[in-house]
From TrEMBL:
UniProt GO MF annotations: quinone reductase (NADPH) activity
Gene3D superfamilies: Medium-chain alcohol dehydrogenases, catalytic domain, NAD(P)-binding Rossmann-like Domain
InterPro entries: ADH-like_C, ADH-like_N, ER, GroES-like_sf, NAD(P)-bd_dom_sf, Zn-ADH-like_protein
Keywords linked to the UniProt accession: Oxidoreductase
Pfam families from the UniProt entry: ADH_N (PF08240), ADH_zinc_N (PF00107)
Enzyme Commission number(s): 1.6.5.5
Organism name: Sphaerotilus uruguayifluvii
Residues forming coiled coils: none
Domain Enoyl reductase (ER): 14-326
Name recorded for this polypeptide: NADPH2:quinone reductase
Length: 330
């Protein structure tokens, strides 16, 4: 009898409710690949998009969602010499994490840093990698500047708060409830704006003495984008990270002209592919910051594989705080 495993499977792009938990054959790694026993896989907003066919990348069907994971290597394919079974690793693999075992290209592996648990390893790469790349590589955030973070209680938002503080910036966190803002405060936000109760632009003016912020990090899009752009200072930078609100905003270009503002796109996944050396540098920077206690991923929930589909649905509805980790072995 051939070996099997459990996996959350997407057979066709469509409703999240169509995902099924199945028993499938245990995959074997091909050339340049490794197989990992997934001990933790974290949930990210792209997981909700990719299964619906709404993401810029469409994996071959069928597939398992789950863009990042941590676990132990169980087998290596032909040509893989740098990795061996038994090694503890983490990976941003794009998909495949919501399964008991996952096949990952060896080039996409990183060793799990000393002292880091599997849950943290699974929760670190995409959100902290995106935030660091956005703030440091794309936006060039400087010590003493003020950053406004939209959707600040989400995974990328909380990571951006911690990283911006680590880079010496002042952070204004904007979120939609007192509960979310309390979480932002716990992770180091200097100032808070509840944009369901307060006027975003007016509050930024109050908090900056009418000067505006030097940078906005926006993983949300939607109706707040224009107000946030107007809240930037002379030569302010607006980082476009994603569209969790479900709406891609349209921007009047005269807003850029009036204050010599800049709008900058952030596509971390493609940046990793195009500049692997920079990615490796950033990962070492994050590992050092974690080891020194300067960053700490917020794992808000831990679920068995049976809970993954519901968690993806809640992520799509923006009902998740911090990071949800799925533990397929439980």
């Amino acid at each position: 009898m051939s070996a099997t495993m459990r996996a959350l499977i997407c057979h066709a792009f469509g409703p999240i409710a169509d995902l099924t938990l199945e028993t499938v054959p245990l995959p074997e790694p091909g050339p340049g690949q490794v197989r990992i026993a997934v001990e933790a896989a974290s949930l990210n907003f792209p997981d909700a998009l990719i299964v619906q066919g709404l993401y810029q990348v469409r994996p071959p069907l069928p597939f398992s969602p789950g863009a990042e994971l941590a676990g132990t290597i169980t087998a290596v394919g032909e040509g893989v010499s740098a990795w061996q079974p038994g090694q503890r690793v983490m990976s941003f693999c794009g998909h495949g994490g919501f399964a008991e075992q996952a096949i990952v290209p060896a080039a996409q592996l990183l060793p799990l840093p000393e002292g880091m648990d599997m849950d943290t390893g699974a929760a670190l790469l995409l959100t902290y990698g995106t935030a660091l790349h956005a703030l440091q590589d794309v936006g060039r955030l400087q010590r003493g500047e003020t950053l406004l973070v939209l959707g600040a209680a989400g995974g990328v938002g909380l990571a951006a708060i911690e990283i911006a503080r680590d880079l010496g910036a002042r952070v204004i966190a904007a979120a939609s409830s007192a509960e979310r803002l309390a979480l932002c405060r716990q992770h180091g936000a200097h100032e808070l704006i509840d944009y369901h109760r307060e006027d975003l632009r007016r509050q930024v003016d109050v908090l900056t003495g009418g000067q505006g912020v030097q940078m906005v990090l926006d993983p949300v899009g939607g109706a707040l984008a224009e107000a946030a752009l107007r809240a930037t200072a002379w030569r302010g930078r607006y980082l476009v990270v994603g569209f969790a609100a479900g709406e891609i905003p349209k921007v009047a270009l005269n807003l850029l002209l009036l204050k010599e503002r800049q709008m900058l796109g952030v596509f971390w996944g493609d940046a990793v592919r195009r500049d692997p050396a920079r990615h490796a540098h950033n990962m070492r920077q994050l590992a050092e910051a974690f080891a020194q206690g300067r960053i700490r991923p917020c794992v808000s929930e831990r679920l068995p594989l049976e809970g993954a589909r519901d968690a993806i649905a809640r992520m799509a509805a923006r009902q998740v705080l911090g990071k949800v980790v799925v533990r397929p072995q439980e």
